[in-house]
Design brief:
The chain is an alpha+beta fold. The protein has one domain. Helices cover about 35% and strands about 25% of the residues. It is built from 4 helices and 6 strands; from the N terminus they run αααββββββα. Strands 4-3-2-1-5-6 form a 6-stranded antiparallel beta sheet. α1 runs antiparallel to α2 and α1 packs across α3. The protein is globular. The model has no long low-confidence stretch (mean pLDDT about 85).
């Protein structure tokens, strides 16, 4: 999936919709592969929620105030023009109120992760941290990090999406405690204020 920077708005809209579609595909894969009926229902509920909005936006008007759209609007050029890998990690925290934290991770020429963390304040994304990390192991196939045994490192629902050389490659959905420590993200999570994860 390629996105032309010569028409940023059109490219942004296309990327936004494509991102939703690959997320639906990831959820469908999880629903089909799990033997746990409760987990399957969780995946199916997420699929239905995303599908309803996506179909409406494709046939009518894109919701430019959606949190994903707002994140892409701020970072579209950097993501698409990157010559390396870019990962967006979305974390949905369910406590007394729902909160959203996103990490944008760039891998530089020295294979060091440059991490930018953002928190959604109800209207826009606010930058909360910026740091580098040299222990970083995310590989091509994100699905290899999915665990069924609930011994993962994520305390909240997590979606990881990979972009490579400006192209949307894949997205994977991780239900609570299903993200394997082999992903190498624990070190990055630990560097972000733990308030946003627990």
């Amino acid at each position: 999936m390629e996105y032309n920077l010569s028409n940023p708005i059109k490219g942004l809209d296309k990327l936004y919709l494509d991102w939703k579609k690959v997320t639906i595909q990831a959820l469908e894969k999880r629903a089909n592969n799990t033997t746990d009926s409760l987990k399957r229902n969780t995946f199916l509920n997420r699929i239905n929620a995303v599908n309803v909005v996506t179909q409406k936006e494709e046939s009518m008007k894109i919701d430019t105030l959606a949190i994903r759209y707002l994140l892409l609007k701020d970072h579209f050029t950097n993501i698409i023009s990157s010559k390396g890998d870019v990962f967006i990690i979305e974390i949905k925290t369910m406590t007394s109120a729902i909160s959203f934290t996103d990490l944008i991770i760039h891998r530089n020429d020295n294979h060091i992760a440059i991490v930018d963390a953002f928190r959604f304040n109800g209207k826009k994304w606010i930058a909360i941290q910026h740091f580098s990390c040299d222990e970083y192991f995310l590989q091509e196939n994100l699905s290899t990090y999915y665990l069924e045994n609930e011994k993962g490192i994520n305390f909240n629902e997590t979606i990881i999406t990979k972009f490579s050389k400006g192209k949307l490659k894949m997205s994977e959905y991780f239900i609570t405690k299903s993200l394997s420590s082999k992903c190498g993200l624990q070190n990055i999570f630990d560097k972000v204020d733990q308030y946003y994860y627990k």
